[in-house]
Amino acid sequence: TISIQDEKLLDSLDQTIKTVNAENISSTGFSVQLLASSKPFPLEKLAQKTGLNMADITESSFNQLYIYTTGKFDKYQDAIVLRDKIRKENHTPDAFVVFFSDGKRQAKFPK
Known about the structure:
Layout: H1 4-23, E1 29-37, H2 43-50, E2 57-62, E3 65-73, H3 76-89, E4 96-101, E5 104-106
Antiparallel strand pairs: 1-3, 1-4, 2-3, 4-5
């Protein structure tokens, strides 16, 4: 059950995602990975599959794979809230949190 406070936090996170993606403020932080593929995956198709806006999905590369992420957060816990929402509401049960440093996906989280 999602409380009113959780709803407000989710609304705030939605706005944060839109702002960060629109302005591309930071290249370091936590994101939610939606998909990894050895070949490019059409953003429009991924947006339809997940129910997310195409503009909110970012394509980058990691370990010779194309990876698709959404959101950018300074705090891990904020990324977890989005991950849980995406898993539940966007038919993406295997979404998980990843960390970027200087715009590059990292294999490990910072200590």
